[in-house]
Specification:
Layout: H1 2-6, H2 8-17, H3 19-38, H4 43-46, H5 49-64, E1 72-73, E2 77-79, H6 90-98, H7 122-129, E3 133-137, H8 140-152, E4 156-160, E5 166-168, E6 171-172, H9 173-179, E7 183-187, H10 195-201, E8 206-212, H11 228-238, E9 242-247, H12 265-270, E10 275-279, E11 290-294, H13 296-304, H14 307-310, H15 315-328, H16 331-337, H17 339-345, H18 348-361, E12 372-383, E13 386-400, H19 404-412, E14 418-419, E15 421-423, E16 426-430, H20 439-454
Parallel strand pairs: 1-14, 2-12, 4-7, 4-8, 8-9, 9-10
Antiparallel strand pairs: 3-11, 5-6, 10-11, 12-13, 13-16, 15-16
Helix pairs in contact: 2-3, 2-5, 3-5, 6-15, 10-11, 16-17, 19-20
The protein binds pyridoxal-5'-phosphate (PLP).
Length: 457
């Protein structure tokens, strides 16, 4: 062991990884080699110094590789929750990097006294949504939970049966209501709920009317629910608050022209919802956060709720959110600088020409017979529970002639990993979610993986 640690090859590793990890790696590899030799492995694979050093280096490199890694999203799902939802705008990344050190998170630079972290994005949120007051939590699940807990603890929350949805990742409206200390009062049926159903359920025990955007799920056919304005009237007559969880959180419908109607924060507040909750990392295109906007008196109560401490938003998130909201002040800037909006707005023609040009421009390895790589039309989706059932025409690199699941696995083993989609017998990489400038990298991983996937088959 001392001889190995004194070897010049080891010096660089000690510098990069520290004494204990290097020692540990040698110990494990030596044990492995002894076992292999005892089992009859050839000397050059297990017994030589070179073999040992090679194994140690591989082990150290793997151990130091971060678990959370950048991937190339070739799925065409823009708000892919498993792949981290919204990629941040460059402005947000800069603001976030700036915020990692000391900052006036809870400190007033005017008075030199204690300030509130909840003041930082509130002004911008009010300006952008038209709300009287706003609050930021660490995600929308926390926002909904806080609203229910504050306004209906020990009382009833009235929700339509058609909106008792599971959003995914175990966010289920009934569970959230109950775990937040309230009782669930279901009204209407799965497919149809009327304003009168709500009205009939209200009583002394009611704390809150909750309207939920069903997000990833759609009831079609004989289905209806009251307009938000009708619910507002019901809540108003009863003197009860109405909260609207819109989830995906488009600030303004004009940001996505040509898309089907989706509730926007502004429309919901204008229609009279007392509080609106939504996610920071869905259509807003910012960091993971929960946003609450609405009546000042209600937001003031939420700010005093002790649960808010558990739902507290981090300073780097606040910084990224503030920078994202700054971009939203000008819809044109938002559309061109915020990656999710840019991806959602890119035309199929533009995506197809990026797909074709990059294929033509780059020297690609010859693909073994019978593998083919071509540009074909594809359909991408918004994701994140926004615009359920709506598909955007797009373009993809499509590889055929190789087991698509095997190719998918080799793409995931790429540096960085590339995640695509398997469709029928083909493997697709949709370019809507691959930003301009990253095509060559993605193509390199795809073609290398295709060659590897064919080796030995
Ligand atoms: C996505 C979503 C949530 C959960 O938001 P997170 O920010 O992921 O916690 C809650 N409600 C609705 C309607 C959603 O679409």
């Amino acid at each position: 062991m001392d001889a190995l640690l004194a070897d010049p090859r080891t010096a660089a590793w000690l510098e990069a990884w520290g004494r204990d990890p290097v020692r540990g790696a040698f110990r494990q590899v030596l044990e492995e080699c002894r076992r292999d030799l005892a089992a009859g492995a050839p000397d050059h694979l297990s017994g030589s110094a070179d073999a040992i050093f090679e194994r140690v280096e591989r082990r150290l490199t793997l151990a130091a590789r971060p678990s959370l890694r950048r991937v190339i999203n070739g799925t065409g799902v823009v708000l892919h929750t498993n792949l981290g939802r919204a990629p941040l705008a460059a402005e947000a990344v800069r603001a976030q990097a700036e915020a990692v050190g000391y900052g006036n998170v809870e400190f007033s630079l005017d008075t030199g006294e204690r300030g509130s972290r909840y003041d930082h994005c509130a002004g911008l949120l009010c300006e952008l949504t038209g709300a009287e007051a706003a609050l930021v939590t660490n995600n929308n699940a926390a926002a909904v939970s806080l609203v229910v807990n504050e306004l209906a603890r020990g009382r009833e929350v009235v929700v339509s049966r058609g909106e008792l949805v599971e959003i995914g990742g175990s966010f289920r409206i009934p569970d959230v209501v109950i775990r937040s200390g309230a009782r669930l009062r279901e009204v209407g049926t799965t497919n149809r709920t009327r304003a009168a159903d709500y009205e009939g359920a209200l009583g002394l025990d009611t704390g809150l009317l909750l309207r939920v955007h069903p997000s990833n799920y759609r009831v079609e056919g004989f289905a209806s629910r009251p307009d938000l304005a009708d619910l507002v009237a019901v809540a108003g007559r009863a003197g009860l608050p109405l909260a609207h969880d819109i989830g995906s959180g488009l600030l303004d419908a004009a940001l996505l022209p040509g898309f089907p109607p989706e509730p926007s924060v502004r429309d919901s507040l204008r229609a009279g919802a007392d509080l609106v909750t939504w996610s920071g990392d869905k259509l807003l295109g910012g960091p993971q956060a929960g946003l609450i906007a609405g009546r000042a008196a209600l937001v003031a109560r939420l700010r005093r709720n002790p649960l808010l401490r558990a739902f507290r938003v981090d300073k780097t998130t606040l910084a990224a959110l503030e920078a994202t909201l700054q971009l939203h002040r000008d819809p044109d800037r938002a559309a061109s600088r915020i990656p999710t909006l840019r991806m959602l707005r890119e035309s199929a023609t533009s995506i197809a020409s990026r797909a074709r040009e990059s294929l033509a421009r780059h020297d690609l390895p010859a693909l073994p017979q019978p593998v083919t790589l071509a540009v074909e039309t594809s359909r991408s989706v918004v994701g994140g529970g926004a615009f359920p059932g709506f598909e955007l025409e797009s373009a993809a690199w499509v590889v055929r002639g190789v087991d698509p699941d095997r190719l998918a696995a080799f793409c995931r083993a790429g540096e960085p990993p590339l995640v695509g989609r398997v469709r029928d017998a083909a493997f697709l990489v949709d370019l809507r979610t691959i930003p301009g400038g990253e095509e060559a990298e993605a193509l390199g991983i795809l073609t290398t993986a295709a060659v590897r996937a064919m080796e030995g088959t």
